[in-house]
Amino acid sequence: LSCRWFFLNFFTSWSVNLLGVSYGMISGWSSSALPTLQTSAGDERLLESGAITLQQASWIGGALCLGGIVGTLVGGAIVDRLGRKWTAWIAGLPLVVCWVLVIVANHPGYLMGARFLGGLAGGIEFVVTPLYVSEIACTSHRGTLSSLLILSCCLGVEFAYLAGALLHYYTIPWVSVSVPVFFLATFCFLPETPSHLAKVQKLAVSLSILLRFTLEDFLNRVFFVTPHRSRLPNAHCASSVAS
């Protein structure tokens, strides 16, 4: 049972951390894209406006952090109203749009907008992902699963570096957009956290999810026992007397 709980908790936690992978990819995308955009010209130019200037490259790079500031505020405002699940799902939408903008971009403004949306999604993600994981995971696995947030972002950045070295400029966004699309298609089937459901008075559903994901914690808190051993006072003495 312990392995089953860990797998269920790990799968759910990793699903929400696909946001981190996608955010890491748009973060690391600029490392290979900006030098390419600054040197492309003539028949080999990537944008209709030609090679980007140093100032435009700076705005493309900095737009990510501007979006992150806004995203943090937006995430904090909606996470209790919409719930952890749907706030995380909404964060996947700007990630899809940002890669679409990179695909269709013919002017640096598109790329600035793409990076801003990527930062917006990242800001929301860093608000909601720790909440979702901590509320859906059982106590014994919570520390391990919480580390997936930074791990997923680092993996996304490394994927972007690797893609920049191996793939063509226009191939990278087509590959990258598959991550948030997959997230949006699958995460909607995962449950809301028991804590939020209890807060909105959906107690029956909350209890059902609590038993499915954190049964061991539930037994500890309600009955003071685990599936492996009793934690009732003097349980060992009682069993000795009975024998």
TrEMBL record:
Transmembrane segments: 7-26, 57-79, 86-106, 112-133, 145-166, 172-190
Compartments it resides in: Membrane
Annotated membrane topology: Multi-pass membrane protein
Record GO terms (molecular function): transmembrane transporter activity
Superkingdom: Eukaryota
Keyword set, alphabetical order: Membrane, Transmembrane, Transmembrane helix
The UniProt record lists the keyword Membrane: yes
GO cellular component, one term: membrane
Major location category of this protein: membrane
Residue span, Major facilitator superfamily (MFS) profile domain: 8-243
Protein name (Swiss-Prot/TrEMBL): AGAP007755-PA
Organism per entry: Anopheles gambiae
